[in-house]
Amino acid sequence: MSPALYAALVLAAFLVASLGSFWLAVRPPRLAIPLRPEDYGLAVEPVRIRADDGVSLAGWFVPRPGAPAIVLLHGYPAEKADLLPIATALAPEFATLLMDHRYFGESEGRTTTLGYRERQDLKRTVDFLESRGAAAVGVFGFSLGGAVALLTAAEDPRIRAIAAYAPFADLKALGRELYAWMWLARYPFVEAMLLWSRVAFGADISRPTPAAAAARVTVPVLLVHSRQDEQIPFRHAERLRVALAGNAQAEFEFMDRGRHGELPADFEARLAGFFRRALTTAARAAAAGEANP
Questions:
Q1: What is the distance between the alpha carbons of residues 184 and 199, in angstroms, rounded to a whole number?
Q2: Per-residue pLDDT tens over the stretch 200-251
Q3: Are the CB atoms for 282 and 276 separated by under 8 Å?
Q4: Does 7 fall in a domain?
Q5: How far is CA 131 from CA 69, 73, 89, in A?
Q6: How many angstroms separate the CA atoms of 141 and 116, rounded?
Q7: How far apart (Å, rounded) are the C-alpha atoms in residues 145 and 23?
Q8: Close Cβ partners of 158 (under 8 Å, ≥ 6 residues apart)
Q9: How would residue 285 be classed by pLDDT, with cut points 50, 70 and 90?
Q10: Spatial contact of 138 and 278, defined as CB atoms under 8 Å apart
Q11: Cβ-count burial of 50 within 10 angstroms (0-12 exposed, 13-18 middle, 19+ buried)?
Q12: Would 221 be classed as within a structural domain?
């Protein structure tokens, strides 16, 4: 076998492997959560929200007329039922909307785009809440959901507060960490995966980064992360803290212990307090603006 043919075969195998890894990343096995709203005594209204590309997004809505609203966004590869315990703590005070990201749970969609199209989906979700009279809108996002919240808030001023639990700061960096076992080959491998994202979605889905978006966010932000997180390394939280350094309304809760998604003691009560402070102020400002056009 000639060296040129051998090199061509190695390159072809490399590209095929990167394509397989990309396809698994955007079509992962979905995690089903065996919980229902009635398990928590929540009376929800099933809703459907149409995305810009026609995908139907599924949600559970707990109305509370006249109150601020909070969107809850789950992590990868779970579904909205994963956030029912948090919704139960927020629903007595806020209109609460649990959403399935595209592809996950009961939502339509052939793939996840890991934040690229999801940020437009969140804007349509805010449209829905505005149509239902929400005085102000905040977002709680876990992992992928937290990254989506940051990305969207940098583009949509209607989001008045964000609580992000263990979001990634940079998808490309996360990919390189995931494939660290490939040593130097991880760099071209991740670039090849992003090349496939351009083919599939017409864009590099790793840009903009949540860190770049966070640097443009001026509303209250609560960033929560564990130094022992085994899925999103703590260095992502450190990068986001630097990005949020210019935001005087940013708060940080970093734990020494806890796995990915493990909630600290009394977290729900502290989360409700954060949104109470942030969204009550935002709702009063909005009401004052309507009274004095």
A1: 24
A2: 999 999 999 999 999 999 999 999 999 999 999 999 999 999 999 999 999 9
A3: no
A4: no
A5: 12, 20, 24
A6: 15
A7: 20
A8: 126, 130, 137
A9: low
A10: yes
A11: middle
A12: yes
First and final CA of the chain: distance in angstroms?
77
**How many structural domains comprise the chain?**
1
pLDDT band at 284 (very low <50, low <70, confident <90, very high): low
Q: Is residue 6 over pLDDT 90? A: no
User: Closest by alpha carbon to 84, among 74, 93, 92, 94?
Assistant: 74
- Amino acid, single-letter form, for residue 204: D
Q: Is the residue at 211 inside a domain?
A: yes
Amino acid identity of residue 50, one-letter, is R
What DSSP string describes 171-220? HHHHHHHHTGGGGGGHHHHHHHHHHHHHHHHSS-TT-S-HHHHHTT--S-
Beta strands (DSSP E) in 23-122 are 45-50, 56-62, 69-73, 95-99
pTM for the structure as a whole:
0.95
Range of the domain at 140: 31-170+206-291
Pairing of strands 56-62, 45-50: antiparallel
- For residue 164, the domain's CATH number is 3.40.50.1820
User: Which backbone phi and psi does 112 adopt, to 5 degrees?
Assistant: -90, 150
The tens digit of pLDDT for each residue in 256-269 reads 999 999 988 899 99
User: And the tokens for 50?
Assistant: 């149409």
Structure letter (DSSP) for residue 40: G
Other C-beta atoms lying within 10 Å of the C-beta of residue 72: 24
Task: Check residue 264 and give its pLDDT.
Answer: 86
| 62 part of a folded domain | yes
